[in-house]
Specification:
Structural class: alpha/beta
Strand order of the largest sheet: 3-2-7-22-23-24
CATH topology of one domain: TIM Barrel
Number of strands: 24
Distance between the termini: 36 Å
CATH architecture of one domain: Alpha-Beta Barrel
CATH class of one domain: Alpha Beta
Number of helices: 18
Helix content: 25-40%
Shape: globular
Amino acid sequence: MTDISRRRFFGSAAAAASLGIVPGTSLAATRDATGTADLIITGANVITMDPEVPTATAVAVRGQHILAVGDDDDVLNLKGPGTEVIDARGHTVTPGFIDAHSHPLMAHEGISANVNLRRISDVKAALAAQAGKTPPGHWVLGSMYDDTKFKDGRPINRSDLDDAVPNHPVFVRHRGGHTAVVNSRAFELAGISAETPDPVGGRYFRDNGELTGQIAEPSAMQPFQQAGVWPILDRAARQKSVELTSRNMAAAGLTSTTDSWGATEDFVAYQDARAAGDMHYRVSFMPFGGTDVYEGLKLARMASGFGDDMLRIGAVKFAADGSASERTMSRSTPYEGRPDDYGILTMTQDEIYAAVDDAVAHDFRVGIHANGDVAIDRVLNAYERVLKDWSGENPRFRIEHCSLVNESLLKRIKKAGVIPAPFYTYAYYHGNKWLDYGEDMMESMFAHRSFLDYGIPVAPASDFTPGPYEPMMAIQSMVTRKDTQGRVWGPSQRISVTEALQVCTMNGAYASFEEDIKGSLTPGKLADIAILEKDPHDVDPDGITDIKVLRTILGGRTTFSA
């Protein structure tokens, strides 16, 4: 019989007590008190992300929670006749990964053409094919468009869409979500001409006075979305989207994500998928400010924290400026080659104040989209205004993306206890976008190193669909700051593999006030686990993204197996 020691078996007293474990007793005695484990993983390189005992070789699971973490011999004392044992020799076990900012249901591929392609001719062909199965006069939609990936050296424009689809209105949404490209028929249907002024907080792009087809931000998109007949994404299709997306994310080792633009239909879809057994991740649901779901939650007195481990209401979301990837974020300096363009602010300072005040009055935490340094400053103004007389627990206000920072902003973020959620795969995946910003500015963008050096618990954020969500790609991107072509963007912002793992696990849990139930392999916490082919510490940093996920476990249940 082997005594439990803090070296070999760890966890808080409260967590252990929840499983009937009394500190100082033997694992054999623990078995007698709590029963046997349902699942044991042995022989592994276990990276616990718990600083008390950072490594182990075995993990035991009972029900939905971790029962024990320690050495093989100790943990195997909890084996019974019905225990599943996974031999993970040669492999690495980590906590399940967390994505603190994504849009899991945004793609809607069931009703649109996926135009994540590399040539304009291929995009035109995909849209033409979609038009062929679309009723006359109805909208033809394209999704996942990314102009920086084209081999043609230019983005698509109104003429391209007119040529591909002359008889339907066309709306091609950029994967970044803040811009779209439309055709002439769409402009006609929406009643917009070259003489139409730009809406507040939006833009109709022009070249020599003529509409190019590019539009930016919700206020500019709204006239199109309110005109004509759009494809219907019904309840069953939304439920199916949850199933497909959650399966795909599970295959990447993700066990938790955050829906950062939640609508009523999305909330219903998560509940439908869960009831059907088709939801394979945990969701922190961020309702978007001003929408039906947010107003309904306020009326029902349901605020941040309401729900359970699978589906919980998170912070309310607002958006204060444009996009980093689509070059519309609000900056203190003009865009190169555009001397009068400082980006787009989508909220005034007074509107930000009002939004934060209203959210706090209804017991909501707040997360505001702010990419550029000007927008970040305005968001911090509002947070600091509320926190000046704050007497309770740190509300952990968030800045979604928080892309372009400086020393002054970093100091204010630290002092206010604000959580930034910068893009974690962007340095790697979106390299061509950073040519517009240049090497110097990239030293201050997606500033994981700076955040950590200031003691700021920076959160993991893919922003899927705009960015890939794969945690291995995220770790490589944060560690190397190299894009797919080997170019380095902001080398001073590199972090270590261990730090990147911390960002993708415990920091993700902290961002949703759930660090006590997930984020590390600690007895009493949820059994959310990823089994990796290799240890990210032990491979060439440029090959981390190639590490395979062998198994993903959510609350003791396998959601993916290679």
